[in-house]
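Record copied across here:
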Amino acid sequence: MKTTHYPTGARLLVVALTLWLIGLPSGAFSQAPLVTTRLANPVYDCISDQYCLDVEFQSNTENVQVFGMNVRFFYDDTFMELIGFSDFQPGYGPVMPDPPMIMTTLPPSATTNFGFPAPGIADFVNGAIQLVDESQPPIFIDLVGWTKLFQVCFTVEGTLTLVQLYVAREGKSSIFRSI
């Protein structure tokens, strides 16, 4: 009977190749930057009933630049209607869908899901922004402060009071809910 065995060099090559292939996906587990987004600096114009908020970003990693993002959130349809995205920093602009798509929920789903007051109707906004002109100087996201890239504006309707706008500014309101 004839016994076949692999040469030692071939065995080492198989072991080395196996270890290399096992280690290959470890790059997928490396830490990606965490970018936080917030709505800030509310401005209400009493004459036009326009309410605008800055969309600001913060990163936990240096030299992070936002290329683009989907902008999706719910807001209480009882009080406001979306005007759109504006006041873009140099190089940034809206992309498809432009203008943002708005879908209205059925009552009382916004009361059940988000705690909005009755009748519980919310508008869902689905838009996008992107770096559209790379010839502009880069805007890097701040590590400690906040970096504004654009603004979102609404027309105020109904009975939204200045107290409710202040509470929304402090982040304690159910007027907005992001997803």
Summary: The longest helix spans residues 8-23. The chain has three helices and nine strands.
